[in-house]
Amino acid sequence: METDGEIEAQQQEGYPRASCELCSVLGKTYEEFVSNATHLHEYTHSILENPDPDLVPLQFKAVLTRDLGAERKINVIYPATNDSFVHVYRTTKDPVGNYRVIEPYLPNDFKHLVGLVEQKFSQAVDEKYADEFLDNREEMLRKLFDITVIPTAWLPEGFREQGNTLLVSEELYNRLRYEIFRDKVGSGRIETLIKDPYLEDISCNGVGAVFVEHKIFGSLVSNIEFTTQEELDTFVVKICERVGKPISRRRPIVDASMPDGSRLNVIFGTDVSRRGSNFTIRKFTKTPMSIIQLIKYGTLDERMAAYLWMMIENGMSMFICGETASGKTTTLNAITVFIRPSARIVSIEDTPELYVPHPNWVNEVTRRSETQSSSIELFDLLKSALRQRPNYILVGEIRSKEGNVAFQAIQTGHPVISTFHASSMQKLIQRITGDPINIPPTYVDNLNLVVFQSNVRNPKTNQLQRRVTAIHEIVGMDPIEKTYNFIELFSWDPVTDKHIFRGVGNSYLLEYKVAPMRRLSPKDYRKVYDELELRAYVLKRLVELNIEEYIDVYGLITKIYENPYIYSENIDEYSKKAIDKLLNV
Prior knowledge:
Elements: H1 4-13, H2 28-34, H3 38-49, E1 59-60, E2 74-79, E3 85-90, E4 97-102, H4 112-124, H5 127-135, H6 137-148, E5 149-152, E6 159-162, E7 165-169, H7 170-184, H8 191-195, E8 199-204, E9 208-214, E10 218-226, H9 229-242, E11 253-257, E12 263-267, E13 278-282, H10 291-297, H11 302-313, E14 318-322, H12 328-335, E15 345-349, E16 361-365, H13 378-385, E17 392-395, H14 402-411, E18 416-420, H15 425-433, E19 449-457, E20 464-478, E21 483-493, E22 498-501, H16 508-517, H17 528-544, H18 550-561, H19 573-582
Parallel strand pairs: 1-2, 4-10, 5-7, 14-18, 14-19, 15-16, 15-17, 17-18
Antiparallel strand pairs: 2-3, 3-4, 6-7, 8-9, 8-13, 9-10, 11-12, 12-13, 19-20, 20-21, 21-22
Helix pairs in contact: 5-6, 11-17, 13-14, 17-19
Protein backbone atom coordinates (compact mmCIF):
# COMPACT_ATOMS: atom_id res chain seq x y z
CA MET A 1 0.00 0.00 0.00
CA GLU A 2 1.38 3.41 -0.97
CA THR A 3 1.72 6.00 1.76
CA ASP A 4 0.09 9.42 1.47
CA GLY A 5 3.55 10.91 1.01
CA GLU A 6 4.36 8.57 -1.91
CA ILE A 7 1.04 9.32 -3.62
CA GLU A 8 1.62 13.04 -3.16
CA ALA A 9 5.13 12.70 -4.62
CA GLN A 10 3.81 10.80 -7.65
CA GLN A 11 1.22 13.48 -8.27
CA GLN A 12 3.86 16.21 -7.98
CA GLU A 13 5.99 14.36 -10.56
CA GLY A 14 3.01 14.22 -12.88
CA TYR A 15 2.39 10.46 -12.72
CA PRO A 16 -1.14 9.10 -12.16
CA ARG A 17 -1.62 5.92 -10.18
CA ALA A 18 -1.02 2.71 -12.14
CA SER A 19 -4.53 1.27 -11.87
CA CYS A 20 -8.04 2.54 -12.40
CA GLU A 21 -11.54 1.28 -13.11
CA LEU A 22 -11.48 2.79 -16.60
CA CYS A 23 -8.52 0.62 -17.66
CA SER A 24 -9.81 -2.54 -15.96
CA VAL A 25 -11.71 -3.42 -19.16
CA LEU A 26 -8.35 -4.38 -20.70
CA GLY A 27 -8.14 -7.47 -18.49
CA LYS A 28 -5.71 -9.15 -16.12
CA THR A 29 -2.86 -9.41 -18.62
CA TYR A 30 -2.88 -5.64 -18.97
CA GLU A 31 -2.89 -5.21 -15.18
CA GLU A 32 0.18 -7.45 -14.89
CA PHE A 33 2.12 -5.33 -17.38
CA VAL A 34 0.92 -1.95 -16.15
CA SER A 35 1.95 -2.64 -12.54
CA ASN A 36 5.55 -1.90 -13.62
CA ALA A 37 4.76 0.61 -16.36
CA THR A 38 2.94 3.75 -15.24
CA HIS A 39 3.61 5.33 -18.64
CA LEU A 40 1.42 2.62 -20.18
CA HIS A 41 -1.37 3.48 -17.75
CA GLU A 42 -1.09 7.18 -18.54
CA TYR A 43 -1.48 6.46 -22.23
CA THR A 44 -4.35 3.96 -22.01
CA HIS A 45 -6.18 6.08 -19.45
CA SER A 46 -6.07 9.11 -21.74
CA ILE A 47 -7.42 7.28 -24.82
CA LEU A 48 -10.11 5.41 -22.87
CA GLU A 49 -11.20 8.68 -21.30
CA ASN A 50 -11.73 10.20 -24.76
CA PRO A 51 -12.44 7.26 -27.10
CA ASP A 52 -12.40 7.69 -30.87
CA PRO A 53 -15.89 6.75 -32.16
CA ASP A 54 -14.41 5.38 -35.40
CA LEU A 55 -12.24 2.82 -33.59
CA VAL A 56 -13.25 -0.64 -32.40
CA PRO A 57 -12.85 -1.28 -28.63
CA LEU A 58 -9.24 -1.23 -27.43
CA GLN A 59 -7.56 -4.59 -26.72
CA PHE A 60 -4.34 -5.46 -24.93
CA LYS A 61 -2.44 -8.49 -26.26
CA ALA A 62 0.68 -9.96 -24.67
CA VAL A 63 1.31 -11.85 -27.95
CA LEU A 64 0.00 -11.04 -31.41
CA THR A 65 -1.50 -13.77 -33.58
CA ARG A 66 -1.60 -13.92 -37.35
CA ASP A 67 -5.40 -13.78 -37.55
CA LEU A 68 -5.41 -10.18 -36.27
CA GLY A 69 -4.13 -9.07 -39.67
CA ALA A 70 -7.41 -10.14 -41.28
CA GLU A 71 -9.34 -7.41 -39.43
CA ARG A 72 -10.04 -4.22 -41.37
CA LYS A 73 -10.36 -2.26 -38.12
CA ILE A 74 -7.56 -2.56 -35.59
CA ASN A 75 -7.14 -1.15 -32.08
CA VAL A 76 -4.59 -3.10 -30.09
CA ILE A 77 -1.71 -2.46 -27.67
CA TYR A 78 1.11 -4.97 -27.22
CA PRO A 79 4.55 -5.04 -25.51
CA ALA A 80 7.54 -4.43 -27.78
CA THR A 81 10.17 -4.66 -25.01
CA ASN A 82 10.18 -4.91 -21.23
CA ASP A 83 9.75 -1.13 -21.01
CA SER A 84 8.02 0.00 -24.20
CA PHE A 85 4.69 -0.79 -25.82
CA VAL A 86 3.05 -0.20 -29.18
CA HIS A 87 -0.47 0.92 -30.05
CA VAL A 88 -1.62 -0.05 -33.55
CA TYR A 89 -4.94 1.29 -34.76
CA ARG A 90 -6.71 1.65 -38.06
CA THR A 91 -10.23 2.42 -39.24
CA THR A 92 -11.77 1.73 -42.63
CA LYS A 93 -11.19 5.43 -43.41
CA ASP A 94 -7.43 5.25 -42.84
CA PRO A 95 -5.37 4.64 -46.01
CA VAL A 96 -2.47 3.62 -43.76
CA GLY A 97 -2.69 2.30 -40.20
CA ASN A 98 -1.04 4.02 -37.25
CA TYR A 99 1.84 2.77 -35.11
CA ARG A 100 2.33 4.65 -31.84
CA VAL A 101 5.27 4.02 -29.54
CA ILE A 102 4.46 4.10 -25.81
CA GLU A 103 7.67 4.44 -23.82
CA PRO A 104 8.80 5.90 -20.49
CA TYR A 105 9.19 9.66 -20.73
CA LEU A 106 10.38 12.50 -18.53
CA PRO A 107 7.82 15.23 -17.73
CA ASN A 108 8.91 18.69 -18.90
CA ASP A 109 9.86 19.75 -15.36
CA PHE A 110 12.47 16.98 -15.21
CA LYS A 111 13.93 16.92 -18.73
CA HIS A 112 16.92 18.96 -17.58
CA LEU A 113 17.99 16.00 -15.42
CA VAL A 114 19.46 14.26 -18.49
CA GLY A 115 22.01 17.05 -18.91
CA LEU A 116 22.65 17.08 -15.17
CA VAL A 117 23.35 13.33 -15.13
CA GLU A 118 25.68 13.63 -18.14
CA GLN A 119 27.57 16.36 -16.32
CA LYS A 120 27.98 14.11 -13.28
CA PHE A 121 29.11 11.29 -15.57
CA SER A 122 31.93 13.47 -16.91
CA GLN A 123 33.00 14.27 -13.35
CA ALA A 124 33.00 10.58 -12.42
CA VAL A 125 34.97 9.39 -15.46
CA ASP A 126 38.75 9.69 -15.26
CA GLU A 127 41.57 8.30 -17.37
CA LYS A 128 41.30 5.00 -15.55
CA TYR A 129 37.77 4.46 -16.92
CA ALA A 130 38.35 5.95 -20.38
CA ASP A 131 39.64 2.75 -22.03
CA GLU A 132 36.96 0.67 -20.31
CA PHE A 133 34.30 3.02 -21.67
CA LEU A 134 35.56 2.51 -25.22
CA ASP A 135 35.78 -1.28 -24.82
CA ASN A 136 32.29 -1.79 -23.38
CA ARG A 137 30.11 1.26 -23.69
CA GLU A 138 26.96 -0.29 -22.21
CA GLU A 139 28.63 -1.86 -19.18
CA MET A 140 30.55 1.33 -18.39
CA LEU A 141 27.40 3.43 -18.70
CA ARG A 142 25.62 1.06 -16.34
CA LYS A 143 28.39 1.45 -13.75
CA LEU A 144 28.34 5.24 -14.05
CA PHE A 145 24.58 5.39 -13.76
CA ASP A 146 24.54 3.14 -10.68
CA ILE A 147 27.06 5.29 -8.79
CA THR A 148 25.61 8.61 -9.97
CA VAL A 149 21.83 8.18 -9.78
CA ILE A 150 20.38 6.72 -6.57
CA PRO A 151 16.71 5.68 -6.34
CA THR A 152 14.95 6.78 -3.16
CA ALA A 153 11.59 5.55 -1.94
CA TRP A 154 10.13 8.98 -1.32
CA LEU A 155 11.18 12.50 -2.30
CA PRO A 156 8.51 15.23 -2.20
CA GLU A 157 10.37 17.30 -4.79
CA GLY A 158 11.16 14.28 -7.04
CA PHE A 159 14.95 14.68 -6.96
CA ARG A 160 17.76 16.11 -4.88
CA GLU A 161 21.48 16.66 -5.56
CA GLN A 162 23.88 15.27 -3.00
CA GLY A 163 27.51 15.89 -3.94
CA ASN A 164 28.26 14.08 -7.19
CA THR A 165 25.15 11.92 -6.88
CA LEU A 166 21.54 12.56 -7.75
CA LEU A 167 18.79 11.22 -5.50
CA VAL A 168 15.56 10.59 -7.41
CA SER A 169 12.23 8.91 -6.73
CA GLU A 170 11.91 5.32 -7.93
CA GLU A 171 9.52 6.24 -10.76
CA LEU A 172 11.76 9.05 -11.95
CA TYR A 173 14.78 6.74 -11.70
CA ASN A 174 13.24 4.22 -14.13
CA ARG A 175 12.27 6.90 -16.65
CA LEU A 176 15.62 8.66 -16.47
CA ARG A 177 17.49 5.39 -16.86
CA TYR A 178 15.39 4.40 -19.89
CA GLU A 179 15.95 7.69 -21.72
CA ILE A 180 19.70 7.80 -21.10
CA PHE A 181 20.31 4.18 -22.11
CA ARG A 182 18.01 4.51 -25.13
CA ASP A 183 19.98 7.48 -26.47
CA LYS A 184 23.51 6.57 -25.36
CA VAL A 185 23.56 2.81 -26.00
CA GLY A 186 20.49 2.12 -28.11
CA SER A 187 19.28 3.62 -31.36
CA GLY A 188 17.68 6.74 -29.91
CA ARG A 189 14.12 7.52 -30.84
CA ILE A 190 13.81 4.43 -33.09
CA GLU A 191 14.93 2.02 -30.34
CA THR A 192 11.46 0.54 -29.81
CA LEU A 193 11.11 0.04 -33.57
CA ILE A 194 14.44 -1.79 -33.65
CA LYS A 195 13.44 -4.03 -30.73
CA ASP A 196 9.84 -4.71 -31.83
CA PRO A 197 9.85 -8.39 -32.91
CA TYR A 198 6.83 -7.85 -35.18
CA LEU A 199 8.51 -5.34 -37.51
CA GLU A 200 10.22 -6.26 -40.77
CA ASP A 201 11.28 -2.88 -42.15
CA ILE A 202 11.76 0.66 -40.86
CA SER A 203 11.99 3.51 -43.35
CA CYS A 204 12.39 7.27 -43.19
CA ASN A 205 11.95 9.01 -46.55
CA GLY A 206 13.10 12.42 -45.35
CA VAL A 207 11.77 15.03 -42.94
CA GLY A 208 8.50 13.74 -41.50
CA ALA A 209 7.17 10.49 -40.08
CA VAL A 210 8.97 7.16 -39.98
CA PHE A 211 7.12 4.28 -41.69
CA VAL A 212 7.22 0.63 -40.65
CA GLU A 213 6.31 -2.66 -42.28
CA HIS A 214 4.54 -4.86 -39.74
CA LYS A 215 4.55 -8.66 -40.02
CA ILE A 216 0.85 -8.80 -39.18
CA PHE A 217 -0.66 -5.38 -39.93
CA GLY A 218 1.32 -4.40 -43.03
CA SER A 219 2.41 -0.83 -43.77
CA LEU A 220 1.94 1.64 -40.89
CA VAL A 221 2.93 5.25 -40.18
CA SER A 222 4.56 5.79 -36.79
CA ASN A 223 4.47 8.67 -34.34
CA ILE A 224 8.27 8.88 -34.56
CA GLU A 225 9.14 11.83 -36.79
CA PHE A 226 11.94 14.20 -37.70
CA THR A 227 10.76 17.80 -37.91
CA THR A 228 13.83 19.45 -39.49
CA GLN A 229 16.56 18.47 -41.93
CA GLU A 230 19.23 19.28 -39.33
CA GLU A 231 17.59 16.93 -36.83
CA LEU A 232 17.47 14.11 -39.37
CA ASP A 233 21.06 14.69 -40.53
CA THR A 234 22.30 14.59 -36.94
CA PHE A 235 20.47 11.31 -36.35
CA VAL A 236 21.81 9.53 -39.46
CA VAL A 237 25.37 10.70 -38.77
CA LYS A 238 25.09 9.33 -35.23
CA ILE A 239 23.64 5.97 -36.27
CA CYS A 240 26.32 5.51 -38.95
CA GLU A 241 29.08 6.30 -36.45
CA ARG A 242 27.53 3.76 -34.09
CA VAL A 243 27.93 0.98 -36.69
CA GLY A 244 31.46 2.07 -37.57
CA LYS A 245 30.63 3.47 -41.03
CA PRO A 246 30.94 7.29 -40.89
CA ILE A 247 28.86 9.14 -43.48
CA SER A 248 29.49 12.53 -45.07
CA ARG A 249 28.73 14.53 -48.21
CA ARG A 250 31.88 13.05 -49.73
CA ARG A 251 30.65 9.52 -48.90
CA PRO A 252 26.86 9.95 -48.87
CA ILE A 253 25.78 6.29 -49.12
CA VAL A 254 26.30 3.70 -46.40
CA ASP A 255 25.32 0.02 -46.35
CA ALA A 256 26.05 -1.66 -43.05
CA SER A 257 24.95 -4.19 -40.46
CA MET A 258 23.62 -2.96 -37.13
CA PRO A 259 24.66 -4.61 -33.84
CA ASP A 260 21.59 -6.88 -33.89
CA GLY A 261 22.29 -7.98 -37.48
CA SER A 262 19.69 -5.73 -39.14
CA ARG A 263 20.60 -4.31 -42.56
CA LEU A 264 21.05 -0.52 -42.65
CA ASN A 265 21.01 1.65 -45.77
CA VAL A 266 21.53 5.42 -45.41
CA ILE A 267 21.65 8.22 -47.98
CA PHE A 268 22.94 11.52 -46.63
CA GLY A 269 22.21 15.09 -47.69
CA THR A 270 20.40 16.70 -50.60
CA ASP A 271 23.11 16.10 -53.23
CA VAL A 272 21.82 12.62 -54.09
CA SER A 273 18.35 12.73 -52.51
CA ARG A 274 15.93 15.54 -53.33
CA ARG A 275 14.15 15.20 -49.99
CA GLY A 276 17.40 15.06 -48.06
CA SER A 277 18.75 12.31 -45.84
CA ASN A 278 16.82 9.05 -45.64
CA PHE A 279 17.36 5.60 -44.21
CA THR A 280 15.95 2.08 -44.39
CA ILE A 281 16.46 -0.72 -41.90
CA ARG A 282 15.68 -4.32 -42.84
CA LYS A 283 15.16 -6.07 -39.52
CA PHE A 284 17.13 -9.22 -38.70
CA THR A 285 15.26 -12.13 -37.14
CA LYS A 286 17.42 -14.07 -34.70
CA THR A 287 15.19 -17.12 -34.99
CA PRO A 288 14.03 -17.62 -38.59
CA MET A 289 10.53 -18.63 -39.58
CA SER A 290 10.27 -22.39 -39.93
CA ILE A 291 8.93 -24.24 -42.95
CA ILE A 292 5.93 -25.25 -40.80
CA GLN A 293 5.10 -21.60 -40.13
CA LEU A 294 5.31 -20.83 -43.85
CA ILE A 295 2.91 -23.70 -44.54
CA LYS A 296 0.52 -22.38 -41.88
CA TYR A 297 0.66 -18.88 -43.37
CA GLY A 298 -0.11 -20.25 -46.83
CA THR A 299 3.23 -19.27 -48.40
CA LEU A 300 3.46 -22.82 -49.75
CA ASP A 301 1.76 -26.16 -49.01
CA GLU A 302 2.99 -29.45 -47.56
CA ARG A 303 3.58 -31.11 -50.94
CA MET A 304 5.60 -28.15 -52.21
CA ALA A 305 7.74 -28.22 -49.07
CA ALA A 306 8.16 -32.01 -49.34
CA TYR A 307 9.30 -31.59 -52.95
CA LEU A 308 11.91 -29.00 -51.93
CA TRP A 309 13.01 -31.38 -49.17
CA MET A 310 13.67 -34.14 -51.72
CA MET A 311 15.44 -31.75 -54.09
CA ILE A 312 17.77 -30.44 -51.37
CA GLU A 313 18.55 -33.88 -50.00
CA ASN A 314 19.48 -35.11 -53.46
CA GLY A 315 21.85 -32.25 -54.24
CA MET A 316 19.76 -30.18 -56.64
CA SER A 317 20.73 -26.53 -57.14
CA MET A 318 18.02 -23.89 -57.00
CA PHE A 319 17.33 -20.17 -57.11
CA ILE A 320 14.55 -18.57 -55.07
CA CYS A 321 13.36 -15.64 -57.17
CA GLY A 322 11.06 -12.69 -56.61
CA GLU A 323 10.85 -8.97 -56.07
CA THR A 324 12.23 -7.03 -53.10
CA ALA A 325 10.63 -7.99 -49.74
CA SER A 326 8.81 -10.98 -51.24
CA GLY A 327 10.27 -13.30 -48.60
CA LYS A 328 13.04 -14.97 -50.62
CA THR A 329 15.56 -15.04 -47.77
CA THR A 330 12.84 -16.17 -45.33
CA THR A 331 12.10 -19.16 -47.55
CA LEU A 332 15.81 -19.90 -48.02
CA ASN A 333 16.29 -19.88 -44.25
CA ALA A 334 13.27 -22.12 -43.72
CA ILE A 335 14.36 -24.85 -46.15
CA THR A 336 17.89 -25.18 -44.74
CA VAL A 337 16.47 -27.61 -42.13
CA PHE A 338 16.11 -30.11 -45.00
CA ILE A 339 19.89 -30.29 -45.48
CA ARG A 340 21.31 -33.41 -43.85
CA PRO A 341 22.55 -32.62 -40.32
CA SER A 342 26.00 -34.06 -41.11
CA ALA A 343 26.54 -31.81 -44.15
CA ARG A 344 29.22 -29.12 -44.35
CA ILE A 345 27.61 -25.83 -45.35
CA VAL A 346 29.25 -22.58 -46.44
CA SER A 347 27.04 -19.48 -46.57
CA ILE A 348 28.13 -16.28 -48.31
CA GLU A 349 26.37 -12.93 -47.86
CA ASP A 350 26.73 -9.17 -48.12
CA THR A 351 25.00 -8.72 -44.78
CA PRO A 352 24.43 -11.65 -42.38
CA GLU A 353 20.80 -12.75 -42.69
CA LEU A 354 21.05 -16.52 -42.97
CA TYR A 355 20.81 -18.76 -39.94
CA VAL A 356 21.82 -22.40 -40.33
CA PRO A 357 21.26 -24.77 -37.37
CA HIS A 358 23.79 -27.35 -38.55
CA PRO A 359 26.98 -27.74 -36.49
CA ASN A 360 29.31 -27.82 -39.52
CA TRP A 361 28.43 -24.36 -40.88
CA VAL A 362 30.83 -21.67 -42.10
CA ASN A 363 29.27 -18.19 -42.32
CA GLU A 364 31.19 -15.67 -44.45
CA VAL A 365 30.34 -12.03 -45.23
CA THR A 366 31.77 -9.46 -47.61
CA ARG A 367 33.92 -6.51 -46.53
CA ARG A 368 33.59 -3.05 -48.00
CA SER A 369 36.60 -0.73 -48.02
CA GLU A 370 37.62 2.64 -49.42
CA THR A 371 40.34 0.89 -51.43
CA GLN A 372 39.52 -1.82 -53.96
CA SER A 373 42.50 -3.94 -52.91
CA SER A 374 41.23 -4.47 -49.36
CA SER A 375 37.57 -5.11 -50.24
CA ILE A 376 36.27 -8.67 -50.13
CA GLU A 377 33.38 -9.27 -52.55
CA LEU A 378 30.93 -12.16 -53.00
CA PHE A 379 33.00 -13.19 -56.02
CA ASP A 380 36.10 -13.64 -53.82
CA LEU A 381 34.24 -15.54 -51.10
CA LEU A 382 32.56 -17.86 -53.58
CA LYS A 383 35.90 -18.77 -55.16
CA SER A 384 37.29 -19.42 -51.69
CA ALA A 385 34.28 -21.57 -50.76
CA LEU A 386 35.11 -24.05 -53.52
CA ARG A 387 38.34 -24.88 -51.68
CA GLN A 388 36.53 -25.60 -48.40
CA ARG A 389 34.93 -28.89 -49.51
CA PRO A 390 31.34 -27.82 -48.86
CA ASN A 391 28.39 -30.14 -49.35
CA TYR A 392 26.18 -27.10 -49.93
CA ILE A 393 26.86 -23.47 -50.78
CA LEU A 394 24.25 -20.90 -49.74
CA VAL A 395 24.47 -17.43 -51.30
CA GLY A 396 22.45 -14.58 -49.81
CA GLU A 397 21.83 -13.07 -53.25
CA ILE A 398 23.45 -13.46 -56.66
CA ARG A 399 23.45 -10.23 -58.65
CA SER A 400 26.76 -9.89 -60.47
CA LYS A 401 29.85 -11.78 -61.67
CA GLU A 402 29.70 -14.12 -58.66
CA GLY A 403 26.87 -15.82 -60.57
CA ASN A 404 29.44 -17.15 -63.04
CA VAL A 405 31.42 -18.73 -60.20
CA ALA A 406 28.20 -20.16 -58.74
CA PHE A 407 27.50 -22.01 -62.00
CA GLN A 408 31.07 -23.29 -62.06
CA ALA A 409 30.51 -24.58 -58.52
CA ILE A 410 27.37 -26.42 -59.66
CA GLN A 411 29.29 -27.97 -62.56
CA THR A 412 31.91 -29.31 -60.15
CA GLY A 413 29.28 -31.03 -58.02
CA HIS A 414 28.60 -28.42 -55.33
CA PRO A 415 24.87 -27.73 -54.91
CA VAL A 416 24.16 -23.99 -54.75
CA ILE A 417 21.03 -22.46 -53.21
CA SER A 418 20.61 -18.71 -53.61
CA THR A 419 18.10 -15.89 -53.90
CA PHE A 420 17.85 -13.94 -57.15
CA HIS A 421 15.87 -10.99 -58.48
CA ALA A 422 13.71 -12.15 -61.40
CA SER A 423 9.95 -12.22 -61.95
CA SER A 424 9.73 -15.03 -64.53
CA MET A 425 11.77 -17.76 -66.21
CA GLN A 426 12.30 -15.53 -69.25
CA LYS A 427 13.64 -12.69 -67.09
CA LEU A 428 15.82 -15.12 -65.14
CA ILE A 429 17.45 -16.48 -68.30
CA GLN A 430 17.93 -12.97 -69.68
CA ARG A 431 19.71 -11.89 -66.50
CA ILE A 432 22.00 -14.89 -66.06
CA THR A 433 23.03 -15.02 -69.73
CA GLY A 434 23.57 -11.25 -70.01
CA ASP A 435 26.03 -8.83 -68.42
CA PRO A 436 27.49 -8.97 -65.82
CA ILE A 437 26.82 -12.67 -65.05
CA ASN A 438 27.37 -13.99 -68.60
CA ILE A 439 26.52 -17.67 -68.19
CA PRO A 440 26.87 -19.51 -71.54
CA PRO A 441 23.36 -20.45 -72.72
CA THR A 442 24.24 -24.15 -72.78
CA TYR A 443 25.15 -24.01 -69.07
CA VAL A 444 21.76 -22.75 -67.86
CA ASP A 445 20.41 -26.27 -67.22
CA ASN A 446 23.08 -26.79 -64.56
CA LEU A 447 20.54 -24.95 -62.42
CA ASN A 448 17.93 -27.59 -61.62
CA LEU A 449 14.93 -25.67 -60.38
CA VAL A 450 13.61 -22.17 -59.73
CA VAL A 451 11.17 -21.13 -57.01
CA PHE A 452 9.18 -17.96 -57.70
CA GLN A 453 7.78 -16.00 -54.80
CA SER A 454 5.74 -12.81 -54.67
CA ASN A 455 3.87 -10.37 -52.47
CA VAL A 456 0.18 -10.60 -53.34
CA ARG A 457 -2.69 -8.54 -51.95
CA ASN A 458 -5.55 -10.26 -50.17
CA PRO A 459 -8.74 -8.70 -51.62
CA LYS A 460 -10.68 -9.36 -48.41
CA THR A 461 -8.27 -7.70 -45.98
CA ASN A 462 -6.26 -5.54 -48.42
CA GLN A 463 -3.12 -6.90 -46.72
CA LEU A 464 -0.05 -8.16 -48.57
CA GLN A 465 0.66 -11.88 -48.29
CA ARG A 466 3.67 -13.87 -49.43
CA ARG A 467 3.04 -16.74 -51.79
CA VAL A 468 5.24 -19.15 -53.71
CA THR A 469 3.62 -18.64 -57.10
CA ALA A 470 5.45 -21.34 -59.08
CA ILE A 471 8.20 -23.94 -59.06
CA HIS A 472 9.89 -24.63 -62.41
CA GLU A 473 12.19 -27.52 -63.29
CA ILE A 474 14.81 -26.71 -65.92
CA VAL A 475 15.08 -29.62 -68.37
CA GLY A 476 17.59 -28.28 -70.89
CA MET A 477 18.18 -26.23 -74.02
CA ASP A 478 17.10 -27.08 -77.54
CA PRO A 479 20.32 -26.48 -79.56
CA ILE A 480 18.41 -26.11 -82.83
CA GLU A 481 15.58 -23.83 -81.73
CA LYS A 482 17.81 -22.06 -79.17
CA THR A 483 14.97 -22.32 -76.65
CA TYR A 484 14.87 -23.58 -73.08
CA ASN A 485 12.66 -26.42 -71.91
CA PHE A 486 11.23 -26.17 -68.42
CA ILE A 487 8.29 -27.64 -66.53
CA GLU A 488 6.01 -25.67 -64.23
CA LEU A 489 5.50 -28.43 -61.67
CA PHE A 490 3.71 -26.29 -59.07
CA SER A 491 1.59 -23.18 -59.53
CA TRP A 492 -0.57 -20.93 -57.35
CA ASP A 493 -4.24 -20.27 -58.08
CA PRO A 494 -5.06 -16.68 -56.98
CA VAL A 495 -8.82 -17.35 -57.07
CA THR A 496 -8.79 -20.19 -54.54
CA ASP A 497 -5.47 -19.23 -52.89
CA LYS A 498 -4.36 -22.85 -53.30
CA HIS A 499 -1.21 -24.41 -54.72
CA ILE A 500 -1.62 -26.82 -57.63
CA PHE A 501 0.59 -29.86 -58.30
CA ARG A 502 0.69 -31.06 -61.92
CA GLY A 503 0.64 -34.62 -60.67
CA VAL A 504 2.35 -37.97 -61.05
CA GLY A 505 4.40 -38.35 -64.20
CA ASN A 506 5.19 -34.68 -64.71
CA SER A 507 8.41 -34.20 -62.72
CA TYR A 508 11.60 -34.51 -64.73
CA LEU A 509 13.80 -34.16 -61.64
CA LEU A 510 11.94 -36.71 -59.52
CA GLU A 511 11.82 -39.34 -62.25
CA TYR A 512 15.16 -38.85 -64.01
CA LYS A 513 17.38 -37.49 -61.23
CA VAL A 514 16.04 -38.63 -57.85
CA ALA A 515 14.58 -42.04 -58.80
CA PRO A 516 17.89 -43.38 -60.19
CA MET A 517 19.62 -42.22 -56.99
CA ARG A 518 17.02 -44.29 -55.11
CA ARG A 519 18.09 -47.28 -57.29
CA LEU A 520 14.63 -47.62 -58.73
CA SER A 521 14.39 -49.39 -62.07
CA PRO A 522 12.92 -47.35 -64.96
CA LYS A 523 9.60 -49.17 -64.69
CA ASP A 524 9.38 -48.17 -61.00
CA TYR A 525 10.40 -44.52 -61.39
CA ARG A 526 6.93 -43.30 -60.53
CA LYS A 527 7.17 -44.88 -57.08
CA VAL A 528 9.27 -41.85 -56.13
CA TYR A 529 5.98 -39.93 -55.89
CA ASP A 530 4.99 -42.15 -52.94
CA GLU A 531 8.05 -40.89 -51.12
CA LEU A 532 6.96 -37.34 -51.95
CA GLU A 533 3.52 -38.01 -50.45
CA LEU A 534 5.03 -39.60 -47.34
CA ARG A 535 7.18 -36.54 -46.70
CA ALA A 536 4.17 -34.31 -47.27
CA TYR A 537 2.41 -36.41 -44.62
CA VAL A 538 5.29 -35.79 -42.19
CA LEU A 539 5.01 -32.02 -42.67
CA LYS A 540 1.22 -32.13 -42.44
CA ARG A 541 1.50 -33.92 -39.08
CA LEU A 542 3.95 -31.28 -37.81
CA VAL A 543 1.41 -28.61 -38.77
CA GLU A 544 -1.39 -30.50 -37.00
CA LEU A 545 0.77 -31.02 -33.90
CA ASN A 546 1.65 -27.30 -33.88
CA ILE A 547 5.39 -28.09 -33.90
CA GLU A 548 6.55 -24.91 -35.59
CA GLU A 549 9.59 -23.46 -33.82
CA TYR A 550 12.59 -23.46 -36.14
CA ILE A 551 14.92 -25.46 -33.87
CA ASP A 552 12.17 -27.97 -32.99
CA VAL A 553 11.46 -28.57 -36.68
CA TYR A 554 15.18 -29.04 -37.37
CA GLY A 555 15.41 -31.54 -34.50
CA LEU A 556 12.54 -33.63 -35.84
CA ILE A 557 13.83 -33.54 -39.42
CA THR A 558 17.15 -34.80 -38.03
CA LYS A 559 15.35 -37.72 -36.35
CA ILE A 560 13.41 -38.47 -39.52
CA TYR A 561 16.62 -38.71 -41.55
CA GLU A 562 17.50 -41.71 -39.40
CA ASN A 563 14.14 -43.35 -40.12
CA PRO A 564 14.04 -45.91 -42.96
CA TYR A 565 10.32 -45.38 -43.53
CA ILE A 566 10.94 -41.97 -45.04
CA TYR A 567 12.34 -43.76 -48.10
CA SER A 568 9.37 -46.13 -48.38
CA GLU A 569 8.31 -46.86 -51.95
CA ASN A 570 4.72 -47.22 -50.77
CA ILE A 571 2.75 -44.83 -48.62
CA ASP A 572 0.57 -47.02 -46.41
CA GLU A 573 -0.86 -47.03 -42.89
CA TYR A 574 2.17 -48.92 -41.60
CA SER A 575 4.53 -46.18 -42.81
CA LYS A 576 2.26 -43.48 -41.41
CA LYS A 577 2.14 -45.17 -38.00
CA ALA A 578 5.93 -45.45 -38.00
CA ILE A 579 6.16 -41.71 -38.69
CA ASP A 580 3.62 -40.93 -35.95
CA LYS A 581 5.60 -43.04 -33.49
CA LEU A 582 8.76 -41.16 -34.40
CA LEU A 583 6.93 -37.87 -33.74
CA ASN A 584 5.76 -39.25 -30.37
CA VAL A 585 2.03 -39.08 -31.16
